[in-house]
Structure formats: structure tokens, C-alpha cells
Specification:
Elements (H helix, E strand, L loop, with lengths): L12 H27 L3 E2 L5 E2 L12 E5 L5 E6 L4 H10 L3 E9 L11 E10 L3 H19 L4 E3 L2 E4 L5 E4 H9 L7 E2 L2 E2 L1 H8 L11 H13 L6 E2 L1 E7 L8 E2 L2 E12 L2 E8 L4 H19 L7 H9 L3 E7 H9 L18
Parallel strand pairs: 1-5, 8-12, 9-13
Antiparallel strand pairs: 2-4, 3-4, 5-6, 6-17, 7-8, 10-11, 13-15, 14-15, 15-16, 16-17
Length: 351
């Protein structure tokens, strides 16, 4: 006979009853979002989960699998970290406005706000500036709040009015306000000066000899900036420094910053968007540098998707954004973690 009580599984009716209201609200939000996109003349797409390359950012990690072809040849493939590559190929094919509720996957991620498998709401507007998708984000966050009737988003002691006009804050201004760092003064020619940022961050974060400019940037962002964003109202953090441009184009007239933004509520990052880079040669250079750094840090690299890079050269000017749908539902329903708003837990987990 066991002295310790064994926790019931997630599908036990009594346990499931606690989550059911959150899941019903999720369904209402999903339906409303689909209606919103339809009214704006977006096409809903469904793109492939298995990809030759899951993305080429240093700190993104993807589950790997093998596919056995009809001729018994094995191919290494990855579960996507985002539908971005496939969606941009659709833009190159001629689609103008598209969106997807995409199941995406991340290794090395689990926590109150992180799941190894989750839903990303991603959409693109061809021929429109990234201010358009910023406005979309604000509208959709407000829509979710109206659907549930919640007046205030709250998370871990912070609160924000999702219907109030958002704060528009540049990354440089945020670093100055919250960390006393002149961020743009550490960037020249679109490149970060590691030693300059290390001196500026001295005493504010722990800097090691192995830290790159991006490492120091991330430490300051996580420790001093992000916890202060989205207090009282949404914050749109924009004009990311060029070394953190990822797949965004640099801003016309100022190569130190890129057309990249993130949206925060209660210190929680909800969305990450770009004015999309359409220079395939520049994108290849960025990906190669990211994979070199991944190899140095983690001893692995992902292949480049040459088909994607060819599509980048053909795609029109566009803007796009990825929004963490589980996180949005969590805030809009008053749940305390993303686990409460997903229908089933990740495979192998009991709760």
C-alpha cells in the first residue's frame, strides 16, 4: 500500500472541469479571430510542419526526425519552429494577405509561458508597411479581451488595459529609460561593438568573457527592460538594433536599427513582427553567421533552405508577425499559465 497519493491524470473529469472554462473561451477567441481575418480579406493557409530547415537563429532549437521515403532512403527533417519560411514562399507565389494558426515546436523550452509544442498565430500583408501589422496586433489583442469581457490583463502582479492606446517605445529609448544605456552608441555600420556594450552594461548585468554583443543585449533586455513593458497598457517595442534584425529589413536612413517590433502586456511578450527583408544575399549572410554561432555554442547547425532564399528574392515587399496564441488566451481568460489554456498537455507530461 502506498502512503503518497498519486496525482490524477489531466483527463480526470474533476481536474478537467477546472480547465474547461478556459478552453471554451479559447474556442470563442479562435472563432472571432478567424472572422476578423475573413473580414479583412485574408486567406487562411495550412503549411507543412516537416521542414528541411526549421529556422536559422542561434538560440532556436527544433526537434529532429527522419522520414523514410518509398525507396527506403532516409531524410533528416525538422519540426518547424515557425511557419515563416512556407508563408513567405506563398507570398512569392502571389498571395497577398494570409494567416495561419500554426502548430510549432521548440526544444529546450518549458515553463509557465513556454511549451515545447504550441500554437502560433502568424500573418502577412504583401505591399503594406509593418505599421499595418502593428495595428493588427493591437486590434486582435483588444478583440480577445472583448470576447472574454476581461477588463484588465494581469500576470504575476502586473496589469495592463488591453483596450487602452498602446505605448510606442523604441528599443534604444527603453534601454536608456530602464538601464541607463546608450544602445545606439554601441552600434556602427549595422554591427554591434561588443566591448562598448560591455562597458555600458558594467554593474547592470553579469558579463562574461565569452559573451557576444547579442548576449549582453539579451541579458539587459531580460533583466531590466522586459519586466517593465506592458505596465498599465500594451507596449509596442520597436526599432530593434540591426544586430538583432533576424529576418527584418533595416530602417531606411538609419542602418543602426531594423523594422522589427514586439508587443508586450504585463511583461509578457505576445508578438514579434517584421518589415520583411527581401534581400536574399543579405538573408543568406545573416543565416550563415547565426549558424556559425550556433555551431560554436551548441555544436550543431541547421541547413539553409535554399528554396526559401530563392523565394525571398522573388517575394514582394511585405510585413508579417507571429503572435503567441496560447499566451494571448492565457491573459484574456485570466489563467495563470499557458498549461491551463491548451486542450492537452505536451506528449509525455501528466498534467
Amino acid at each position: 500500500m502506498h502512503d503518497l497519493a498519486v496525482a490524477s491524470p489531466w483527463w480526470d473529469p474533476a481536474r478537467y472541469l477546472d480547465r474547461k472554462p478556459f478552453l471554451r473561451a479559447r474556442g470563442r477567441i479562435t472563432a472571432a479571430v478567424r472572422d476578423w481575418f475573413a473580414a479583412a480579406e485574408f486567406a487562411e493557409v495550412e503549411t507543412a510542419i516537416l521542414q528541411r530547415s526549421p529556422g536559422n537563429e542561434t538560440h532556436l532549437h527544433a526537434p529532429k526526425t527522419e522520414l523514410l521515403d518509398a525507396d527506403d532512403e532516409r531524410r533528416t527533417l525538422y519540426l518547424r519552429t515557425s511557419p515563416e519560411f512556407a508563408c513567405k514562399k506563398l507570398l512569392a507565389a502571389g498571395e497577398v494577405r494570409i494567416f495561419e494558426f500554426a502548430r510549432v515546436f521548440r526544444d529546450r523550452e518549458r515553463g509557465r509561458l513556454h511549451l515545447p509544442e504550441f500554437t502560433m498565430l502568424e500573418w502577412y500583408r504583401a505591399g503594406e508597411p509593418y505599421e499595418a501589422v502593428i495595428a493588427d496586433c493591437v486590434a486582435l489583442i483588444g478583440l480577445a479581451a472583448r470576447i472574454t469581457g476581461i477588463g484588465t490583463f494581469t500576470h504575476r502582479g502586473r496589469s495592463a488595459d488591453p483596450l487602452a492606446a498602446p505605448e510606442l517605445l523604441s528599443v534604444a529609448a527603453a534601454f536608456e529609460r530602464f538601464a541607463g544605456i546608450d544602445l545606439l552608441g554601441t552600434i556602427a555600420g549595422g554591427k554591434g561593438d561588443r566591448d562598448a556594450l560591455a562597458r555600458a552594461a558594467d554593474g547592470k548585468v553579469r558579463v562574461t568573457a565569452d559573451d557576444t554583443w547579442s548576449d549582453i543585449f539579451s541579458k539587459v533586455l531580460v533583466e531590466h527592460v522586459e519586466p517593465r513593458l506592458g505596465e498599465g497598457r500594451l507596449t509596442v517595442l520597436h526599432e530593434y538594433p540591426a544586430p538583432e534584425a533576424a529576418l527584418a529589413r533595416t530602417k531606411a536612413g538609419d542602418p543602426r536599427v531594423a523594422e522589427r517590433f514586439e508587443v508586450y502586456a504585463c511583461g509578457v511578450e505576445l508578438a514579434n513582427g517584421f518589415g520583411e527583408l527581401t534581400d536574399a544575399a543579405e538573408q543568406r549572410l545573416r543565416f550563415t553567421a547565426e549558424m556559425d554561432e550556433k555551431q560554436r555554442r551548441y555544436g550543431e547547425r541547421y541547413p539553409l533552405d535554399d528554396d526559401f532564399l530563392a523565394a525571398v528574392a522573388q517575394m514582394p515587399e511585405a510585413s508579417g508577425v507571429a503572435l503567441g496564441f496560447d499566451r494571448l488566451v492565457m491573459l484574456a481568460t485570466g489563467a495563470s499559465s499557458v498549461d491551463q489554456v491548451v486542450w492537452t498537455p505536451p506528449a509525455g507530461e501528466a498534467s
